[in-house]
Each structure stands twice: as structure tokens, then as C-alpha cells.
Amino acid sequence: MIKCDVCVIGGGAAGLMAGIFAAKAGVRTMIIEANPTAGRKLLRTGRGRCNLTHTGSIDDFVRAYGPFGRFVQHSLYEFSPDDVRGFFAEKGLRTKVEKNGCVFPITDRAADVKRILVDTGRRLGIEFVYGRRIEAVEKCTGGFFVKGSGDLVCGKTVIIATGGVSWSFTGSTGDGLRFAADFGHEIVEPRSALAPLVTAEAWPGELEGLGLERVCIITELGDKKLSVTGPMMFTGDGIGGPAVFDLSRLITDVLAEGAEPIEAWIDLLPDVSHQELDELVVARCSAAPKKELAGAIAAILPRAMVLKLCHWLCGSRIVQAGQLPKAKRVELVNMIKGLAVTVKAVRPIAEATITRGGVDTGTI
Description:
- By secondary structure, the chain is of the alpha+beta class.
- The protein has helices at 13-24, 58-64, 69-78, 81-90, 110-123, 175-182, 242-256, 274-287, 293-296, 303-314, 326-337, and strands at 2-9, 29-33, 53-54, 95-97, 102-105, 127-130, 134-140, 143-148, 153-160, 187-193, 197-199, 211-221, 224-234, 238-240, 262-267, 339-346, 354-359.
- The longest helix has 15 residues, at 242-256.
- The radius of gyration is 25 Å and the shape is elongated.
- The two termini are 29 Å apart.
């Protein structure tokens, strides 16, 4: 039997940080990871770049967590976003802030983040056990038995850091939820979040792969107005990208409960007002009156998007820019500033970056 003070189940980002701070407190710490190495999911975050944290005050973070903000508030004050950056800076890895406030390692390499976490843990004397899936956690006198293949581990304290059930190929298979349930915790059904959305309309599939650098998507749930901003791309059956992922976490519960499809409107140029856009279209058409409309305004948006808008506007007829009636111009501007889509589903958990649900915070 192997004995330790703190046994961490899961060697991802959360498990590594938990182990590091336990070891820094001077207790014998063990991290058990089912994969052959630690940080497998961490290496995929931020498309391999690892979005470490975000700028903004702690109050901003608390507000962003919505109804769960109060639960995480104390932790955020104990170890703030600035502390995260300071932690890695002390170990030689500087960070950078991008336009959207996301913080990445200066090297753009998630592998550097993993290396620092694992190396720090080793220097602090953490014992790493790889390739061992835990089957059960049982209470015993003075601690817990952690059972799996190989030696039995007895820990005075056990930290479950196994993640949700998204990206199961990285090892997140929901084992931790089972362990928590065995100890009486309520489990909220995990649901797909930070995932693409499926639309009732088929036309997004015609633009599959087309990305827009910045859009604003607006929808309403009851009397609550939701708005998200960021990059977006069209997929085979709907829309995806960071802005869409952000929206998915806000509406996944509603859609999962069998609600009617949700109407949403995409502002394709959120940084340009209606009036400014109208003036821009007039200027483009006036500068090239004999050009086909799509060609005259192609600089405003990607060509494929413009062609789709012009097809809706004018049908199969080819319209010269100088012959565009005012009513059609107003219609075009309105489409660009509020392109309607009907969201009917969130893509499955297997495609989600994270899951909502899990251990009910009210039972902790």
C-alpha cells in the first residue's frame, strides 16, 4: 500500500496546479493520471497555444460566471488572473494579451505551459503515477482508499480533478462525477458547451469554412437579451467559432430541455453603424456604378458572403451597382446588420470544448 497526504486524481491543468500547491504546503503529494503523460487536454487548448487566463478585474470574472460567480469568487481573490501570469513569469514564461483580452504564453506553445507545471511538480517532490485508471474511492479510517490497477493508495485527502466529459479521447470520461456521486454529491447532467450550433437553415453549409473576424450575435431568452461578440465561422450544419461557442454555453440548457428553436441575429459588421454602413455602400456603388453589385461591395465582407447576400437581395438577376434601388440598399444594410438564423441544437458533447453541469456546487 502506498501512503500519501494528498492524492490528486487527474493530471490535467487543474490537477497539476492542485498538486503543486499541496506540495508547496509541505505535504506528501501524489498525482495519478490515466494517460501515459500529464496534460493531454491542456496541449489542445487554444488550438495548441493554451489560453491561460483573461484580462479584467476579478469582479469582471465573477460577473462572467453568472449564477456561479459567487461560488468561485473566493478562489479568484486567493489566486487571481494576475497571479496566474505571475506564476508562469517566475518560471521564465512570459505572457501576452491579445485584442480580445485572452492571455497566451509568449511562445504560443501549450507544451511550454505543461512543461513548467510538470517540472515544478517534480522539483517539489510530487510522485507522478501514469497509466493508471482509478476505479473507486472509498472512505477509510484517517483518509481514503484510492483503488485501481496496481498498488492500493491511501491518502489523507483526495482531490478529484478528472474534468468533465468533453473530449473524452483525452481521458475525460466522467469518472470523477461517479466518484462524487458515490459520496452523495448531486450531479447535474453534463451538457455540451463551447461548441458549434446547428441551425434550422441549410444555407450556412454553403459557406462552410468561411470565417468572419468579428461579429455580434444577439438573441433573447424570455425577457433576457443575450449578446456575444468575437470571431465566427460557418460550418456544414450551422455556425461555429469563439463567438458561437460563447453563446452555446448560455443556451445549451434551454435547448437540451426541448425548447423551441431560438431565433438569433448576426451583426456581420458590429463596429460599423447602420448609417455608416449605408454611406459605405452608397460610396462603393457610386465609385463603380457599372460593376456587378457583388463586385462593387466585395471589400466590405468576404466575397462568398457578399455573393450570398446579393443572391438573396436580387435573386438570380445580375444588378449593376449604379442601379440598386434605395429600398434594396436598405434591405442589404439590414441583412448585414442583422442576419437571421434559427438555432435548433448544440453539437454533441464529443465536439464540445467543455461541459456544463457536473457536481452541483450547492452540495460542496
